[in-house]
């Protein structure tokens, strides 16, 4: 891993374009004031109640995600490249999902192995041949982006099932505007607060044909014990829609209704934050008490839109990710704007041999993993951990991919010792509707707060930053 690219570029008195105002502000702001503002930000987040649970935490404690008060900045030209690449990638993802659940042309052409799809745990045969409104499977995508130099953005992974984190993007901006109004006044920063309006317009645009001219949208949550429940309730409130659990819904004559004080009301679009397995006990897990019996029958009948669609988890698979450049070319006839990280598929014998020979230099991930769990970061691992992981790889090579250890870019971050560089990634949110693609400028910047750490996930001790896209 080489020396990380510093996004502010503040070597000596130097500074990269876009960071000039921030650097002057940091140079003139006493550390005591930064510490005071950080404490005020933490107090605001505690009052708001923006917390998350860590699964497997014996204490079952709700935690506050650490927030860094120094924003991460992207210039307008940088965002222009990113947004074009994000739109291209989500178009290709939707075309891929529509294809594998219908004609399977990319499989017949030999660009993606059949078994990688049909043996995938997230492939849903119940979706085969099902025609969706506008052929859109992924209405809400969270594409994780990393940067290694001034010119190059890589896609680290695609989140096509139920991408989370947008509530932190919105709350981070609100807190920053309250704490640093003078800094905002000095430059034009693209707004993010219109995201709820954009999301609601997107969801309404994919309503079934049988819906009224003003479709009813509801958000389906597993309930208050889910780690992202804060976000579910936050978004339902911001969108002005009902937050429902499975017990609040019923299916009659293949139409979904929610219980209200005025009697049953039809639901046309369900923004579901519930995994496929638990959606409908008559189709998937019969022991699920979280879902809605008969929901899939209403879905097949074309009387409700589920967002995101059932079966999109195939596109989250990290082995499928490795084929995304071919997927973009196959469906769009274009070269990918955003690069993939070079990836070795351990299911292939030559790749497995290479990975085993270079394990101390690699990052190895489970193909169905998420949240920073189940992975090996070779340069940070001891000999025993590497040996144990080698045994796992040999036993189940199909379950893993490997990538080089990238020197993720760093952004100035206010830590206990003062201002220091910390590694960051970015999760922009791409909304694909029946009318157009909407991308709010920015996204959720996640930051690895531990010195030298490359793991930005909140469940692994990472924090978040506000992301500023300069609008000039």
TrEMBL record:
InterPro entries, per database record: ATP-dep_Glu-Cys_Ligase-2 (IPR051680), CP_ATPgrasp_2 (IPR025841), UCP005522 (IPR016450)
Domain Circularly permuted ATP-grasp type span(s) in chain numbering: 71-448
Domain of life, per lineage: Bacteria
UniProt xrefs under PANTHER family: BLR5612 PROTEIN (PTHR34595), SLL1039 PROTEIN (PTHR34595:SF7)
UniProt-recorded name of the protein: Uncharacterized conserved protein, circularly permuted ATPgrasp superfamily
Organism: Kaistia soli DSM 19436
């Amino acid at each position: 891993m080489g020396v990380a690219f510093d996004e502010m570029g503040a070597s000596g008195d130097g500074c990269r374009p876009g960071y000039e105002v921030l650097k002057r502000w940091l140079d003139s702001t006493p550390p005591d004031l930064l510490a005071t503002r950080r404490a005020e930000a933490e107090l605001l987040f505690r009052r708001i109640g923006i917390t998350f649970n860590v699964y497997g935490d014996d204490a079952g404690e709700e935690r506050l995600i650490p927030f860094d008060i120094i924003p991460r900045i992207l210039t307008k030209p940088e965002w222009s490249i990113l947004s074009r690449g994000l739109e291209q990638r989500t178009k290709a993802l939707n075309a891929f999902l529509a294809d594998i659940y219908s004609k399977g042309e990319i499989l017949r052409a030999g660009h993606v192995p059949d078994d990688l799809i049909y043996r995938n745990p997230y492939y849903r045969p119940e979706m085969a041949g099902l025609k969706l409104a506008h052929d859109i499977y992924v209405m809400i995508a969270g594409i994780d982006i990393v940067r290694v130099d001034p010119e190059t953005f890589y896609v680290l992974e695609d989140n096509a099932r139920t991408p989370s984190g947008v509530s932190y993007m919105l709350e981070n901006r609100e807190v920053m505007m309250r704490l640093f109004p003078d800094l905002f006044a000095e430059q034009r920063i693209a707004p993010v607060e219109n995201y709820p309006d954009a999301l609601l317009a997107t969801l309404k645009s994919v309503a079934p044909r049988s819906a009224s001219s003003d479709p009813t949208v509801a958000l389906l949550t597993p309930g208050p014990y889910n780690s992202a429940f804060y976000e579910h309730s936050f978004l339902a409130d911001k969108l002005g829609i009902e937050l429902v659990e499975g017990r609040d819904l019923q299916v009659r004559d293949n139409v979904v209704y929610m219980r209200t004080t005025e009697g049953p009301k039809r639901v046309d679009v369900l923004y579901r934050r519930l995994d496929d397995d638990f959606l409908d006990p008559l189709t998937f897990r019969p022991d699920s008490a979280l879902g809605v019996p008969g929901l899939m029958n209403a879905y097949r009948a074309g009387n409700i839109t589920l967002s995101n669609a059932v079966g999109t988890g195939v596109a989250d698979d990290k082995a499928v990710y490795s084929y995304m450049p071919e997927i973009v070319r196959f469906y769009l006839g274009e070269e990918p704007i955003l690069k993939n990280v070079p990836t070795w598929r351990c299911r292939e014998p030559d790749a497995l041999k290479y990975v085993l020979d270079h394990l101390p230099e690699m990052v190895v991930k489970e193909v169905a993993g998420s949240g920073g769990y189940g992975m090996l970061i070779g340069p940070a691992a001891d000999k025993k951990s590497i040996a144990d992981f080698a045994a796992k790889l040999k036993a189940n090579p199909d379950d893993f991919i490997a990538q080089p250890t990238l020197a993720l870019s760093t952004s100035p971050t206010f830590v206990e010792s003062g201002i220091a560089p910390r590694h960051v990634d970015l999760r922009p949110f791409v909304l694909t509707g029946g009318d157009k693609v909407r991308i709010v400028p920015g996204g959720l910047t996640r930051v690895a707060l531990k010195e030298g750490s490359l793991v930005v996930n909140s469940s692994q001790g990472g924090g978040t930053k506000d992301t500023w896209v300069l609008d000039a």
